[in-house]
């Protein structure tokens, strides 16, 4: 029901935009969809966002799990290695950087374990 209401509100708002544009005489000069102009990485990002993937380039901060050797924090990567920054302590003002290589889980200075997982290329 809420979805239907949102669709009706969006349709009415769009109709209002068209009516206002027609009154001003530039109805045929609306801005095109940004996806039509995007190329390269920008296009891939827009398509991924449209498909519901909100972090296509893995730029969000990962939440740590237990971080034990048996249950390491999984870090996705399209490559065989990746740099990981560990905020070892909640109040830490520095980040500990470490390289992670495919097939070799690694332990940070704080004792937290990380493991590289394969992520399919966009
Ligand atoms: Zn650490």
Automatic annotation (TrEMBL):
Glycoprotein is among the record's keywords: no
Gene Ontology annotations for the cellular component aspect, listed alphabetically: mitochondrial envelope; respiratory chain complex IV
Binding site for Zn(2+): 86, 88, 108, 110
GO terms for biological process, alphabetical: mitochondrial electron transport, cytochrome c to oxygen
Keyword terms of this UniProt record: Metal-binding, Zinc
CDD domains according to UniProt: Cyt_c_Oxidase_Vb
Claim: ATP-binding is one of the keywords in the record: no
UniProt-listed SUPFAM superfamilies: Rubredoxin-like
One term of GO molecular function: metal ion binding
UniProt cross-references to InterPro entries, sorted A to Z: Cyt_c_oxidase_su5b, Cyt_c_oxidase_su5b_sf
One Pfam family matching this protein: COX5B
Record protein name field: Cytochrome c oxidase subunit 5B, mitochondrial-like
Record gene name: LOC113511060
């Amino acid at each position: 029901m809420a979805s239907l209401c949102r669709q009706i509100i969006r349709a009415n708002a769009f109709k209002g935009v068209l009516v206002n544009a027609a009154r001003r005489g530039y109805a045929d000069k609306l801005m095109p969809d940004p996806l039509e102009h995007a190329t390269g990485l920008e296009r891939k990002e827009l398509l991924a966002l449209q498909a519901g993937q909100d972090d296509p380039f893995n730029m969000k901060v990962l939440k740590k799990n237990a971080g034990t050797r048996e249950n390491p924090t999984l870090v996705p990567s399209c490559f065989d290695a990746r740099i990981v920054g560990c905020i070892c302590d909640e109040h830490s003002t520095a980040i500990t950087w470490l390289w992670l290589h495919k097939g070799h889980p690694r332990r940070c200075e704080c004792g937290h374990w990380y493991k590289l997982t394969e992520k399919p290329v966009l």
